[in-house]
Amino acid sequence: MRYRIALTTAGVVVGLGLVGAVSGPGWDPVPLTETVDVATADTTIDVGVVTDPVGTYEVATSVVDVSLTGHDVQARVAQPLGAQGPRPGVVFVHGAGTGRFEDAFVDHAHALASAGVVTLVPDKRLDTYTTRDRQYPAMANDYLRSVQLLRDLPGVDPDRVGVYGESEGGWIVPLMAADNPSVAFTVLVAAPVVPPRQQAAFAVDSYLRNIGVPDSLLRSIPRFVGMEIPGGGFEYTRFDVRPFQQRMRQPVLIGYGTGDEAMPIVQAPLQLVADLEVAGNEDWTLRYYRDANHGMRIDGELCEDFVRDLAHWVQALPHSAGAEPRVAGAEPYQRFVAGPVERPRWYAEGDLLVVSLVASFLAVATGPVVWAVRRVLRRPGTMMAEGVRAPLITLGAGCVVTFAALAVYLLTVAHLAQNYRTSVAVVQGGWFALRMLGVVTVLAGVVLVYRILDGRRRGGVPAARGTAGEWVLASTVGGAVMLLLSAAYWGVFPALV
């Protein structure tokens, strides 16, 4: 009997693993074969023009109001004290992780101002900006109001005001700059270039591989990133910035840190340069900074070489536009292409996925609810045969605990990945423990089935007693089967393919 149970359990586990593997989509990113040829490790931009270095001037800051359509935001202006003549200016465009000028670009704006560049960091407009809905064209129009405000400030040369975009700002700045002479130059730092959904999948893949997650977990990337999120929205994840990059004719400074795991640091600038060529724009400069992260920081501090080059490039324009060498800095490395993300099949899309999971949990919860009601009503007797009750409870509880453990594991792994940390005990040990929970749950289900069959062979002994018992048995088993299939979809069971 034990041999039969063990063999059947192994077969069911393998079958669930196979179901999870073939239920699609799979995940097999293509290795990147293109490279960026770096001329020299020295990022210095030398065009024979003397400019003010960082730290030359004292900096004065003030807060101004920026009027937008139907809304106002505040912005911090940083000005160099004692700087002679009209000065160049830079407006900063936020990435996805920032929204207030108190928190964003504080070091950048101060450093540039101390070199003689007037800077303006506006608050991001948050009344129309959510995780579910982001309108990049509208955001570009809002940021252009800040550009106009800076151009009108005393002491600023209106013909030398440009924009600096970082991360998500790399999708917004080209919208601002395309066919727009009021934007004198652009600085794109950690620009994704590829559509947001592709960049998200690439970033998740990079983070998870870096902390050493099991390969079977990687296949969940397109199943999560590629699906339509419950409740709709997220149309911006398909935004294509390339048509706007192909209409940018301003000088462009492109910067990446080689420690940036979130961005395709080879593929993105190659595509950006190709798009600028379509625009007939040869005024671009590309710099890579060794070990700098997504925010151009090394060990928490803003990269000094980056700030030095940025301040010099802005001040030396137009001489620094397209200065040789075009590409300099540390050698970048990108393992895989940030390619299109395949969508899950119909049964694993957004709302249907949520409905099926909720229905499954409710079905499993039928047993405890009916038991509690019977206790309150003081109904005598039991609903299940003696040998059926324990494996049924283990099956239902095991499914719930397995899913709860999966959620905790994924959140823990995400926290480790975002903080560039890893732990073999957590990443590998946690995954092994999660799979053992799944196996134990399957074992309980197999024992339950055999006990029901054995009861029937012994003269038709019913597994459930009464209508309530039959409902509890059917709903618990049905809900458990659906939860086990869902767990298989997310990779809990090992696949032999």
Automatic annotation (TrEMBL):
The chain crosses the membrane at residues 352-371, 392-412, 432-450, 471-492. One of its GO terms (molecular function) is carboxylic ester hydrolase activity. Residues 146-202 form the BAAT/Acyl-CoA thioester hydrolase C-terminal domain. It comes from the Bacteria. InterPro entries: AB_hydrolase_Est10, AB_hydrolase_fold, BAAT_C. Keywords: Hydrolase, Membrane, Transmembrane, Transmembrane helix. Pfam families: BAAT_C. This is Dienelactone hydrolase. It comes from Cellulomonas bogoriensis 69B4 = DSM 16987.
